[in-house]
Design brief:
By secondary structure, the protein is of the alpha/beta class. The chain has 2 domains: 2-107, ACT domain (Alpha-Beta Plaits, 2-Layer Sandwich); 155-310, Rossmann fold (3-Layer(aba) Sandwich), CATH 3.40.50. The protein is built from 9 helices and 14 strands. It has helices spanning 15-24, 35-40, 74-87, 110-113, 160-172, 188-195, 208-219, 251-264, 281-290; strands at 2-10, 30-34, 62-69, 99-106, 121-122, 127-131, 144-148, 178-182, 200-205, 227-231, 242-248, 265-277, 294-301, 304-310. The strands form 3 sheets. A 7-stranded mixed beta sheet has the order 10-9-8-11-12-14-13, sandwiched between helices. It has a 4-stranded antiparallel beta sheet with strand order 2-3-1-4. Helix 5 runs parallel beside helix 6 and helix 8 (251-264) runs parallel beside helix 9. The longest helix has 14 residues, at 74-87. The radius of gyration is 20 Å and the shape is globular.
Amino acid sequence: MKWTEISVQTSNEAVDAISHILEAKGSKGVKIEDAADYKKLRAGKYGEILDLAEIPHIESGAIVTGYYPETENIEEIVTQIKAQTAQLSEFGLNPAPATVIQKPLEETEWQTAWKKYYHPVRVTRYLTVVPEWEDYQKTDTAEKILKLDPGMAFGTGTHPTTKLCLQALEMYLRGGEALLDVGTGSGVLSIAASKMGARDIQAFDLDQVAVDSAMENLKLNSDVQNVKIKANNLLTGITTQADMIVANILAEIIVPLVPQAKACLKPGGLFITSGIIKDKLAEVETELEKYHFEVIEVLQMKDWRAIVAKKPSEKE
């Protein structure tokens, strides 16, 4: 299969946002070259093992690269990436120079070489994301293992927006809940919720490729048997009454989701949203308040925010 490499030349501060954009467009992995990472190295730190002057690196800014198969509409993806990258300045991030470059890439060793960069990662106090090829043993009895294939893209649990959702689930899930996962991507949030005791989980994604990816990841976690996944546009047509809804998507998509979430939540139910760049936080909070949600907590990591909001009980 032939592949296309799409690279965005940007600033250090926009790396996380650009990575999120590329992943949301279906990148089968993301490579980051950040001049700031090189500058953090110190001569002599590695003794005689490493000569820092010989390490290939860029002098300034950052380059974020995504990989797309020939089956994708590359021209449309490039157009969308350019538009969303340019919009980052509206959110307080400087994406300059915001240059988007595409070039063909034959399927070669890069598809397996990237595996050396993925290792088990403890993403919360109790949750550890483990690549499916790693033989990992728990470090304590309370630890829960989330097996994933990072090569499927759509989120590996290590991006700040996903970490915030996982932290919120760990904080607020008590066990026995009915849960809806909107924009499931890799399925990592549904898998984590199941392992933390959620009773009945329905997961949705607009992209059938993401649905297929999530289903494959479910197979890697044989103890997860209570998750149903299907393609759907947000919560359109869904009538389930859930105890909790979780959505790790962009702020622009969260806003139209709010009234749907209110309709699908039981009184007193929780709505956990992430993927919110800090300058969009007020917009999402305003929409939640418009539908009488109570914002009970805002979590943050780097430039990203997650909100835990509560639907009023019948007596409120």
